[in-house]
Each structure stands twice: as C-alpha cells, then as structure tokens.
Amino acid sequence: MPSSLQQDPKTYCIDHFGHRFDPIATEPLSTRAWILQERVLSPKTIHYANSEMFWERQTGIFAEDGAMFQRQSVGFSDLLEAKPPNIYSIWEQLVEEYTGRRLTRETDKLPALSGMAKILASANHDEYVAGLWQNWIIQGLNWKVSTYEPYTRKNGGDDDDDDDNNDNNIEEDNHEIDLFSVVV
C-alpha cells in the first residue's frame, strides 16, 4: 500500500549518528501516564499520530512512510525476560518514565503501575508491595526527587530583563489530544 504521505514526505532529524529517536514520545498523548502501561504491556500497537500512523512491535517502530526506528522504551518481552539484578533497573526505568507523565488523579499512581509490576513479579519471583520490591526494599527506599524545569527565553531578551522570565512562570499549554493507541 503506498504511503498517504508521498505528496508530503516527513523528514526526521536525529542529532547524533547512532542516537535513537522515538517518534511516538513527542506526541501529546505520550505525556499521559496510562499510555506508558499501554505501550509496555501491549505486544503490538497502532499509534495514530498527528502526521501519520506508526506500528509498534517488540522488534521496532514502523512508520506509515516507511521509516523504521528501534524501540527505546521497555517492552513486553523485556518484562518477561528480565532477571535479577537487571529486573530492578528495568523497574527504575519504568518508574522514572512513569512519574514524568501526567495523571488525572494522583490516587491512580500505584494501581496504574500494578499491571507492569505483576509481570515483573512473576518473572522475578519477588513480591511487589506498595511500589517497592521485597527483595530490594533498601534500594527501593533510597530515592530522591529530581525536577526538570525547562528554561525558556521570552522574545529573545536578556535573562536579567525581568522577573517574568523564570521557570516558575511558565504556563502550560492545553492542547487537544489527537493521538490514540489501539491495542491489537
């Protein structure tokens, strides 16, 4: 089937040779926490993005225009094949990525992680209790909060021009979500 984008080809710019790029990570819905669980637990997913469709499998991400990308994120097979001590680094990666995303209700945090935790628990023969692993409880309690506040410059002015140019005054844009995933 010819690409629907033949008239308007898309260019992917990757900073460094060998640098991985995840075209789905930049889509608006990818900021939502529940999408991480959908991506990780689904062996195959079709993503309807702003500009084209993407087919995601364990072997990679395939764009409608023919571009292919390696998966960067943890996938279903990674959870099934994980062995200690790598299983805990996979868990840390999932939690770090998950906590950087938005939730509708904060109370959804632990229940939403539980689907991924169940698979890791069966592969690891460890018990998952309220966000921590029994065999890794000391390391699990040794965490810190790190924040990322993007720097923006208004109208190309100097940094010292006004107090309105600090990170605390950045307003969040509200956009309609036009990406959705279908589990297949």
Beta-strand segment tally? 7
Sheet with the most strands, sense and barrel status: 5 strands, antiparallel
Number of H- or I-type helical stretches: 5
Q: Tell me the strand order in the biggest sheet.
A: 4-3-2-1-7
Order of helices and strands: HEEEEHHHEEHE
Distance between the termini: 20 Å
Spatial shape: globular
Mean pLDDT: 73
Description:
It is a single chain. This protein is an alpha+beta fold and 184 residues long. It has 2 domains: 1-73 and 178-184, no CATH class; 76-141, no CATH class. Helix content is 27%, strand content 13%. The chain has 5 helices and 7 strands, in the order αββββαααββαβ. It has helices at 33-41, 76-81, 86-99, 109-124, 137-141, and strands at 44-48, 53-57, 60-63, 68-69, 128-129, 132-133, 180-183. The strands form 2 sheets. The chain has a 5-stranded antiparallel sheet, covered by helices on one side. A two-stranded antiparallel sheet has the order 5-6. Strand 3 (60-63) and strand 4 (68-69) form a beta hairpin. Helix 1 runs parallel beside helix 4 (109-124) and helix 3 (86-99) runs antiparallel to helix 4 (109-124). The longest helix has 16 residues, at 109-124. It is globular. The two termini are 20 Å apart. Residues 158-172 have a biased composition (Acidic residues). This is Heterokaryon incompatibility domain-containing protein. Residues 153-172 are annotated as: Disordered. It comes from Exophiala bonariae.
